[in-house]
Structures are given as structure tokens and as C-alpha cells.
Write a structure and sequence with these properties.
The complex is a heterodimer of chains A (275) and B (102). With 275 residues, chain A is mainly α. Chain A is 61% helix and 1% strand. In chain A, helix 1 crosses helix 3, helix 3 packs antiparallel against helix 4 and helix 4 runs antiparallel to helix 10. The termini of chain A are far apart. Chain B has a domain of 68 residues. Chain B has a two-stranded antiparallel sheet with strand order 1-2. Chain B is extended, with a radius of gyration of 20 Å. Classes of the chains: A mainly alpha (275), B mainly alpha (102). Chains A and B meet through helix 4, helix 5, helix 6, helix 7 and helix 8 of A and helix 1, helix 2, helix 3, strand 2 and helix 4 of B.
């Protein structure tokens, strides 16, 4: 079964437009997209597998093939989509399903605002490009002082194709396919986020924000609706409002000029992010 | 219209709006910079919360299952400076093996 997923993931790579773009003047740009796609490749088997299981569960819940695939193409956020399926599958109303899913996706508000200065062009282009922002592409494209737009788009495109393609496979193939949990793929995502978190923990504020963020998420999990714990964890960033001790933020000293260009001047405050 | 389509359309529209609001509205404009330290801390806070919720929760309950063991094994791989692919594979394989013997 894993062979199938790996095969699917390599087909996804072969289909990606970034790898076919022509023109030497685009080489640097293409390199950035490809960097994002390469960064996300280790995750694609798991993403495709969860897309498959979303398709299978959505069919079982009676959502219908078109609605299931349309949801992966438009919402493109795993946890919210699984929430909709589980509410509707248990006989819940559309309102309950919508409420759960919107809460789960509310974290994209502050995440997209943090990445906002990285996007380019007119409003429509920014709107469309921002749709490729999901947890994994956001985390992989984060650089000191900002976000790398091409890495975000390259990684996001790979995730988008893998997730939607997996959904279509699940809708068509049904429950003849294995549960991704059997393959341990549900353990891949927390490990990924831990691997991306580890290098950030190089000063006291970052460590405090991480410990506090995880603590808030754990404490709120049993007492709030799903989705609230992760949004509430953004409150941990308020440790950054403490008067900085001289040694508190060494990350500001080692910043490259390029990173400074798109860095602090445009960065929004958390109050706005949560407004 | 079926409940499924209503949910698909409303959740889709809300998600598009949530992702686009910052990049479209705040876009190229200069924003007050006093929050920049706070924004720098958004990544560690959110990533740690994602680790916690994806490893230790199912729906609205705290659970300790094979994912925790996978995360631990992945953490050891991170300490040993393993590449991302190795970290992810080690975590998944650990959880899968434990489920196989359970």
C-alpha cells in the first residue's frame, strides 16, 4: 500500500508545472519553487494518504463524489474537512459542521497576516496565491525575518495536488484502501512540526513562546471545541512584549540584509492578527 | 441544496477569506512595527501548539497513543541532526510498528 502512495507522490512531482517552466531568466524563480516542492516531498506520501482517507470517509458519510472533491479543491485544509465529514456523518446539521470547520481554520487568519509581506502583485493574485498557504507550506517557507514566497507556493502546490489527487482516489477507490494510521502516517505530521520548530528555539523568548503555546493547546484541548486550542496558543507570542533584555533576542543580530528587507518594518502586531 | 454542498460552499468561502484577508488587505502597506517581536514568536508558538494538538489529541480529548512514541523517536532523530525525511519516516515507522505489535 505504501508503494502505491509513493508511486502517486512521484506522479504528482512529474505533473508539477514548476518543473516544466521554460526560459533561463526564470531559473532563479524556478529554483525557489522547486526548493519548496523538494522540501515538501517527504510529506507527500502522508498527504496523499490522508487525502485518500478523506475521500473514503466523505463518501461513507454520504457527501457525494462532487462535493467531496470540490471541498478539497476549495477548502484545502485537512482538519477542517475531516471535521465536516464527522459532523455530517454523525447526522449533524450543516451549521454545526460549518462552525467546527471555520473554528479549525481560524488560525489561517494570523498565519496569513504574518506571511502577508511576502506576497506580490495585485489583489486577485495575492488572494489566489494565499490559498496555497497551509500549516506545512507556511512552516517550511518561514525564514528569519519573513517568509519565502516561492518556497511557500512550491510547497503549497505540491500539497494541493497531493491532497486533491488523494481525495479523488479515495472517492473512486472507496474503502478498499488501507487506513493511513496503520502506516503510522498520522505520527509524521507532529514530527514534521517538531523538526521545523527545533531550529527556532535558539533564544529565551522563542523557547518561552513554544512552551507556553504547547501548554495552552494541551490545557484547552479537553475544555474547548477543536480548533480553539491552536488559535489561543497565539497568545503565547505576547511574551515578546516584555522589555527586551540585551541578550534576549540574538536572532536580530545574525539577520541577513535580504531578510531585513522584507522583515520587521512590515510585520503586523498580534493584536491586529487576532482582530 | 444538500447539507453537504452548503457546508462545502460556506466553509470554502470562509477559508478563502481567512487565508486572503491578511495578504490582500495588509499587503504592500507598511504596518506598525512595534509588534514585530510578537510576530517573530508566532512561528514557535503555533508550531509547538500544532505538535501538541496533532500528537496528543483526538477530537476534543487528550490521548497518549502510538503517535507520542513516534514523536519521541522523531525527536531523537532531530537531536541526531537527521534530515527531515529521516525524521518523518522514523516517526511514522515507530508508530506503525507499535500498532502492528499491539
Amino acid at each position: 500500500m505504501r508503494g502505491l502512495f509513493l508511486h502517486t507522490a512521484s506522479s504528482v512531482l512529474a505533473l508539477s508545472p514548476e518543473l516544466k517552466t521554460a526560459g533561463p531568466e526564470r531559473a532563479a524563480e524556478r529554483g525557489g519553487y522547486r526548493l519548496g516542492l523538494r522540501a515538501v516531498t517527504p510529506l507527500l506520501p502522508a498527504v496523499v494518504a490522508f487525502g485518500v482517507s478523506f475521500g473514503v470517509l466523505a463518501q461513507a458519510a454520504g457527501m457525494g463524489a462532487e462535493a467531496s472533491i470540490a471541498m478539497s479543491l476549495t477548502t484545502f485544509a485537512g482538519s477542517a474537512q475531516f471535521a465536516v465529514v464527522s459532523v455530517l456523518g454523525a447526522g449533524g446539521t450543516a451549521v454545526a459542521a460549518i462552525g467546527a470547520a471555520v473554528l479549525l481554520n481560524a488560525r489561517y487568519g494570523p498565519m496569513a497576516l504574518a506571511a502577508a509581506p511576502a506576497f506580490r502583485g495585485g489583489r486577485l493574485r495575492r488572494l489566489l496565491e494565499a490559498q496555497l498557504l497551509v500549516d506545512e507550506s507556511w512552516a517550511l517557507s518561514r525564514r528569519e525575518g519573513g517568509f519565502d514566497r516561492r518556497v511557500l507556493l512550491g510547497a503549497g502546490a505540491g500539497l494541493y495536488v497531493g491532497w486533491s489527487g488523494g481525495t479523488a482516489i479515495g472517492v473512486v477507490a472507496g474503502d478498499s484502501l488501507a487506513d493511513p494510521a496503520t502506516l503510522g502516517l498520522d505520527a509524521a505530521f507532529p514530527a514534521l512540526f517538531l523538526a521545523l520548530l527545533a531550529p527556532l528555539l535558539k533564544n529565551r523568548d522563542a523557547l518561552a513562546a513554544a512552551v507556553l503555546g504547547a501548554g495552552i493547546a494541551i490545557c484547552l484541548t479537553p475544555i474547548t471545541p477543536a480548533g480553539v486550542p491552536v488559535i489561543a496558543a497565539t497568545a503565547a507570542t505576547l511574551v515578546g512584549l516584555r522589555r527586551p533584555a540585551a541578550a534576549a533576542s540574538p536572532s536580530y543580530l545574525g539577520r541577513s540584509p535580504a531578510a531585513q528587507d522584507q522583515g520587521d518594518e512590515r510585520a503586523p502586531s498580534t493584536e491586529e492578527a487576532r482582530a | 441544496m444538500s447539507a453537504a454542498w452548503v457546508a462545502v460552499l460556506v466553509v470554502g468561502a470562509a477559508t478563502v477569506a481567512l487565508k486572503a484577508a491578511g495578504p490582500v488587505l495588509a499587503g504592500e502597506r507598511d504596518l506598525p512595527l512595534q509588534g514585530s517581536r510578537v510576530v517573530d514568536l508566532l512561528a514557535p508558538a503555533l508550531l509547538a501548539a500544532l505538535v501538541a494538538s496533532q500528537a496528543f489529541s483526538t477530537d476534543e480529548a487528550l490521548v497518549l497513543d502510538e503517535r507520542a512514541a513516534g514523536l519521541l523517536a522523531g525527536g531523537v532523530a532531530i537531536l541526531l541532526k537527521a534530515p527531515l525525511l529521516v525524521v518523518v519516516v522514523v516517526a511514522a515507522a515507530t508508530a506503525a510498528l507499535l500498532r502492528l505489535v499491539a
